[in-house]
């Protein structure tokens, strides 16, 4: 029988690509003056699941805030479009990185070991978000494990401008010549729901930091989630916790930011009509002169939209009606597309 | 008499003149790939006339990233070494494609291009041959595959890309596109018209040499063994969807560092050289490809068995796109400067070109091989070589 061989690769390169990625603590190249300075350090977090079991997570704490080591997932980072951001990251022990997911800086500031380096003792990341929208930040070392261990947080880039009256905030700055049929350009809103869906396989949460990097079979092909959370809240509390059950004033606009931090296909259903106004940090608008070719589109009530892992969607609900509106997330297996046992989590918008 | 396109001349050089006939036969020639004119890496294709290809199906041992081997099925074109995925076939819209298929596998196989009527050969017994001739449909990206016990034989290696090139590839603006103006939506036309002609996309127009094909797949050695044992039948196929447990995740048949080093996989170029990515998921798992450095523009899509291409009227930019089993999506990597570098840090002085960025599936389970070995899974790089 013919053999199809894999290409020949320098063993030293193979080793560095996988088992022993390049580590460093360089000065930030091409450093410029900053507008925002953030610090993050790696820490452990114990989080109580729906059945009362306490599971170990890893994440980024904010050393400048007391209690910064108690918040999982990692604290929301919120900056404005056009600000130069410096974030000093200290891994504490072992190596980690921060990848600014959806932000596109230079490779040194992109946080990927095999295309730059993993941070040994400290590094100051530099980037300047050019576009308001919904992003994530997460560790990109041994990502299969470190992302599951919870080393992520939400990153929101706000526009420079503001809305008016009852809807004082904007999802993004409208530009001259933009058309965004069906919505008010900029998607002005009053209340905001930030929902990050995650699934947890407790077996993975007992693993060592470098496990699965050097050729051993440690079972990282088997992912059997037992717990389902939204923004760190276990699914028995998501309908009551203030993080996931938000309040809105009847008649105002609500912006729902969705992110999939799980290893499942996540379907999301709302009981009201909503408009997709931004995907992956890019507003949906049409303006060929300025390089935009998309349009907002309506998701009718009770129609599911599906988020692939690491996608973000911003849904805009204009003029919300009174009531308690459930946002239902369903977690499905990435191969079989079957719902995981217990794989559901419900958030709420309570409009009064 | 078919006139050779400029592309053919560029790609195949003077020897391509031999093909300046109405029917081009690939059976006695092996072409070089897009990027490597002199290498022995065969990637046959023809832009001009009707096309005839001799394909064989073989049983092969396939070496994985960790050095283990599994049984798979592979296509090969006329005596060239078998490969997974099969060689890229290129045909111009409206031309006839004749496929002469010889089954050298110990098992029966079939052939089909989903989305093209008259393209199916139901069964070819071991040792037998069959020929099918059909007229290719609308421009875009298609699978050719073995539809037997779908999707089992496809996942087990019998898949490749068929690229249909447009007859009329210029928008009213004069910009080249991979589609016909009659099919391309206003948004697609506007995007291609913007390259090299707008503040966001300084540089060049897109041209047909700027293309990569990314075929995703997954491997479960248990199912490879079942195939080797001759156990693939309708009953096995009915179990596949619930029993398939992939442990290797490939991009153009390669894992991890191998895909990063592969010239036909890793896009390179300068700023202002937009590149078309034709993405196909031959596997069963739903992938979440995520690209760093630039977002991509989603151009067209075909889903599963129907193979019918829809050209997007809503051209959305994404850094993660969802690739369900059997789907095909064309997207455009604009090769702009990474947009979130502070202006004062651009162009970089201390950081050096090439700027390297990864594309990887964000369902990180796919970044492993045999239960570990991160990141020896579905990943490649792309390089910005300079301004
Ligand atoms: Cu980490
Ligand atoms: Cu990411």
From TrEMBL, chain A:
One of its GO terms (molecular function) is oxidoreductase activity. Keywords: Copper, Metal-binding, Oxidoreductase. It comes from the Bacteria. InterPro entries: Cu-oxidase-like_N, Cu-oxidase_fam, Cupredoxin. Coiled coil: none annotated. Residues 67-159 form the Plastocyanin-like domain. The keyword Signal does not apply. SUPFAM superfamilies: Cupredoxins. This is Plastocyanin-like domain-containing protein. It comes from Skermanella aerolata.
UniProtKB/TrEMBL annotation, chain B:
Residues 1-32 form the signal peptide. Residues 83-167 form the Plastocyanin-like domain. Keywords: Copper, Metal-binding, Oxidoreductase, Signal. Pfam families: Cu-oxidase_3 (PF07732). InterPro entries: Cu-oxidase-like_N, Cu-oxidase_fam, Cupredoxin, TAT_signal. The keyword Signal applies. One of its GO terms (molecular function) is oxidoreductase activity. This is Plastocyanin-like domain-containing protein. The lineage of its organism: Bacteria, Pseudomonadati, Pseudomonadota, Alphaproteobacteria, Rhodospirillales.
């Amino acid at each position: 029988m013919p053999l199809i061989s894999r290409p020949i690769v320098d063993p030293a390169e193979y080793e560095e690509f996988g088992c022993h990625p390049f580590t460093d603590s360089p000065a930030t190249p091409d450093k410029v003056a900053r507008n925002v300075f953030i610090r993050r350090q790696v820490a452990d977090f114990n989080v109580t699941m729906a059945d009362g079991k306490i599971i170990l997570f890893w994440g980024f704490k904010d050393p400048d805030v007391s209690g910064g080591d108690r918040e999982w997932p990692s604290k929301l980072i919120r900056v404005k479009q056009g600000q130069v951001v410096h974030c000093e990251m200290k891994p504490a022990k072992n190596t980690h990185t921060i990848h600014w997911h959806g932000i596109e800086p230079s490779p040194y500031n992109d946080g990927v070991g095999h295309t730059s380096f993993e941070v040994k003792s400290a590094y100051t990341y530099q980037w300047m978000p050019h576009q308001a929208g919904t992003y994530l930040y997460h560790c990109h070392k041994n990502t299969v494990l470190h992302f599951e261990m919870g080393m992520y947080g939400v990153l929101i880039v706000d526009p420079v401008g503001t809305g008016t009256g009852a809807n004082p905030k904007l999802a993004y700055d409208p530009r001259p010549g933009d058309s965004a049929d069906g919505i008010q350009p900029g998607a002005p809103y009053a209340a905001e729901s930030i929902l990050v869906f995650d699934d947890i396989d407790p077996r993975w949460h007992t693993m060592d930091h470098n496990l699965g990097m050097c050729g051993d079979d440690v079972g990282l092909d088997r992912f059997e989630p037992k717990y389902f959370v939204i923004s760190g809240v276990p699914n028995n509390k998501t309908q009551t916790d203030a993080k996931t059950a938000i309040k809105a004033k009847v008649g105002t606009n609500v912006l729902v930011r969705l992110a999939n931090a799980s290893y499942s296909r996540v379907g999301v259903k709302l009981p009201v009509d909503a408009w997709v106004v931004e995907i992956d940090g890019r507003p949906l608008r049409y303006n060929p002169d300025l390089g935009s070719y998309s349009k907002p589109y309506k998701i009718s009530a009770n129609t599911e939209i599906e988020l692939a892992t690491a996608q973000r969607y911003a849904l805009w609900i204009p003029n919300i009606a009174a009531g308690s509106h459930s946002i239902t997330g369903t977690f499905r297996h990435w191969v079989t597309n079957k719902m995981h046992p217990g794989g559901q989590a419900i958030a709420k918008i309570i409009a009064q | 008499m078919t006139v050779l396109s400029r592309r053919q001349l560029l790609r195949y050089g003077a020897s391509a003149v031999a093909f300046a006939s109405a029917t081009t036969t690939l059976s006695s020639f092996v072409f070089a790939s897009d990027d490597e004119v002199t290498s022995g890496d065969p990637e046959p294709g023809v832009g001009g006339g009707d096309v005839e290809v001799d394909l064989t199906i073989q049983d092969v041992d396939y070496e994985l990233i960790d050095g283990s081997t599994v049984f798979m099925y592979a296509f090969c074109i006329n005596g060239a070494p078998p490969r997974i995925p099969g060689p890229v076939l290129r045909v111009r819209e409206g031309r006839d494609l004749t496929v002469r298929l010889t089954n050298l596998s110990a098992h029966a196989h079939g052939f089909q291009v989903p989305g093209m009527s008259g393209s199916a050969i139901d069964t070819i017994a071991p040792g037998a041959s069959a020929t099918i001739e059909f007229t290719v449909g609308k421009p875009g990206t298609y699978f050719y595959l073995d539809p037997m016990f779908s999707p089992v034989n496809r996942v087990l290696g019998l898949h490749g890309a068929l690229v249909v090139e447009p007859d009329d590839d210029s928008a009213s603006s004069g910009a080249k596109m991979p589609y016909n103006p009659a099919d391309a939506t206003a948004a697609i036309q506007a995007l291609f018209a913007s390259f090299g002609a707008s503040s966001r996309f300084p540089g060049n127009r897109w041209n047909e040499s700027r293309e990569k094909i990314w075929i995703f797949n997954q491997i479960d050695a248990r199912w490879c063994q079942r195939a080797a044992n001759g156990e693939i039948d309708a009953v096995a196929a009915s179990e596949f969807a619930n029993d398939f447990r992939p442990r290797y995740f490939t991009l153009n048949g390669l894992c991890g560092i191998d895909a990063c080093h592969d010239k036909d996989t890793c896009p390179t170029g300068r700023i202002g050289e937009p590149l078309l990515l034709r993405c196909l998921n031959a596997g069963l798992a739903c992938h979440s490809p995520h690209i760093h450095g630039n977002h991509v523009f989603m151009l067209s899509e075909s889903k599963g068995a129907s193979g019918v291409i829809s050209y997007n009227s809503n051209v959305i930019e994404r850094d993660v796109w969802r690739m369900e089993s059997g789907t095909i999506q064309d997207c455009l990597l604009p090769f702009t400067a990474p947009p979130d570098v502070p202006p004062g840090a651009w162009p970089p002085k201390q950081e050096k070109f090439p700027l390297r960025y990864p594309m990887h599936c964000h369902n990180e389970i796919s970044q492993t091989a045999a239960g570990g070995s991160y990141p020896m899974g579905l990943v490649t790089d792309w390089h910005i070589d300079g301004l």
